[in-house]
Amino acid sequence: MDEKYYKLLKEQFVSKEAVLTEIINLSAICELPKGTEHFVSDLHGEYDAFNHVLRNGSGSIKEKLRECFPDLDPTEISELATLIYYPEEKLASKESQLSQDAFAYYCRENLIFLLKLARFAGKKYTRSKVRKAFPEKFRYILEELKHEVESSSEKQAYFDSIIEKLQHLGELPNLIIALADSVRRLTVDHLHVVGDIYDRGPYPDKIIDRLISMPSVDIQWGNHDIIWMAVLAGSSLAMMNVIRISSRYGNLDILEDSYGINLRPLIEYAERYYEPSPAFAPRLTEGEYLSQEECDLLNKLQQATAILQFKLESQLIARRPEFHLAERDVLHFINYEENRIELKGKFYDLKEFQAPTINPDEPEELTDEEKILLKKLLKNFKASQKLKQHIDFLLEKGSMYLSYNGNLLIHGCLPLHENGDFKCFRLEGEAYSGRELLDLFEYHVRKSLAHPDREEDLSTDLLWYLWVGESSSLFGKEAMTTFERYYIADKATHVEKKNPYYQLRENPETISRILKNFGMDEKGHIINGHTPVKERKGEAPIKAGGKLIVIDGGFSKPYQKETGIAGYTLLYNSYGMQLAAHEPFKTIKAAVEEGSDIVSVKRLVDRVEKRTCVKDTNIGKEFLKTIEDLEYLFENYEKY
Ligand SMILES: O=P(O)(O)OC[C@H]1O[C@](O)(COP(=O)(O)O)[C@@H](O)[C@@H]1O
Ligand SMILES: [Mn+2]
């Protein structure tokens, strides 16, 4: 085995000297400061706000500008920052305001600032990495210019002549755009998305397209992502939930236009059986306007899909006793003549409960029409190439959790008992908890998507469990009260009790125990999304003495009333960790013209005594192993 491995390794090098060069190269990289990691979560389709946070690197671009140009005042920094965030828009705006000469002067001046900044931002990377950050078209020229920008006076003429030529060819603006992209790339090295890209907001598809284009990104699945993945795994139940939520938030365009899914048969069905009901009024954001007709359609669609969801859920509960969801079999607790429901021994009147297709004797049964309808719809979902590409990407880059550079990233929680013990989930005679439980879930996520034709198998059903189950690390609550929220007035029935994790995570000892369970150093952090931090009510995003950070601050507009801000993001660079809170994002126009930015406050989470180097990171550890192997190969080169 070893022999074969070293033979293969040797094939990658033309000579013994080449091995040595690689050893020196990798060893040098290991000593460089670690790249900046950027964490975001709970994006919920809010592409514009996400795009802005990506572009400003949660404040890191401005920070780099201030370090690189200490003499510039805040307005000048802000002007330059906007050019880096939105180069196309900023240049267009300048071009329309300035004379031709003044615009040419503006381009030259700013190109020089950007070159100096690229040089500064690239200092902590190898030359080859900096080269790769430049787009191929301008790679050579940018390398030359970057090198010469601070050169001696005799080289000045050379530098000037290149710029003049570019200006003459009308290429200066393009070069600035390319350079701005490279600066952003050099400032933030890697992005973590800690779950919930989908639902509630208008453009999850644009977010995923953007993520696909990024060089270095990983995703920890959120409950709202899993439910979309479940549809492609073959779950009609998940499909009803996805359409229900899209109708609730007025986002059918995602399905019909972005993913090209034909909902016509469902629309006709909903129109035929349902009348609008106040509890199903779509939740629109401020300033969003829909006609009465559109609102009514969304209302009816939401009702139709809710009822179909409850029917299919009832069937799942019956075939999966091991999920312990019997208490959620709501359709079986209804007295259809009296229009009442019994829940945990108490009776409640149902308000505006329309169930024209339910047979009280067999409430979980689909009518023949519904069976055909669901088949058609599922086929339409599966036929969307774009949706398939997006879900494949979530599978490729995503996981249930990630241990990365000492930190543990999980969207929701680690299910615990009140006393802090890991909560068990029993399946096929085995008990799973802690890391093993999350590994089990991940195994089934992948299995369900590997077999999309198996629609009611254990793996596919487990994806639904991840959405509503008591031991789901993505849900983290006792039960989901969707039915009660729609049809029961008594608000006490709407409460979704959180898993004890959400209390216990305030305690550093809990965090240490969890990290240990994942085989990680107790000095690390847990990073969660999922539960909006209600700053307005005094809740703190940094918990357990800085060992746990919750970064769901409400990118999602409907939740901003509760959080009081518009999202948190986290930065982890070689000096430590910083949490940034964001104000609501207005528009690109406001950002370009007024320089409005959305990072409001930055809070230090952790500061390390010694700058963290590449050798201390996940990738660095791999490099160290490779170096060891290469050294062995170097010493025994002739043997292989
Ligand atoms: O705000 P809505 O649309 O009523 O959704 C509420 C539902 O969303 C959930 O909070 C899950 O979504 P999150 O992952 O964003 O928390 C459920 O627990 C709850 O029943
Ligand atoms: Mn969530």
Automatic annotation (TrEMBL):
Q: What is its EC number?
A: 3.1.3.11
Cofactor names: Mn(2+)
Key word Transmembrane helix present: no
Protein name (database record): Fructose-1,6-bisphosphatase class 3
Pfam families with a match to the protein in the record:
FBPase_2
So which domain of life are we looking at? Bacteria
Cite the entry's keywords alphabetically: Carbohydrate metabolism, Hydrolase, Manganese
List the taxonomic lineage.
Bacteria, Bacillati, Bacillota, Bacilli, Lactobacillales
Q: For this protein, what reaction is catalysed?
A: beta-D-fructose 1,6-bisphosphate + H2O = beta-D-fructose 6-phosphate + phosphate
Q: What general EC class does the enzyme of this chain belong to? A: hydrolase
ATP-binding as a keyword? no
> Which sequence ranges form a coiled-coil region, renumbered to this chain?
none
The entry's family comment says: Belongs to the FBPase class 3 family.
Pathways per UniProt: Carbohydrate biosynthesis; gluconeogenesis
* Gene behind this protein: fbp
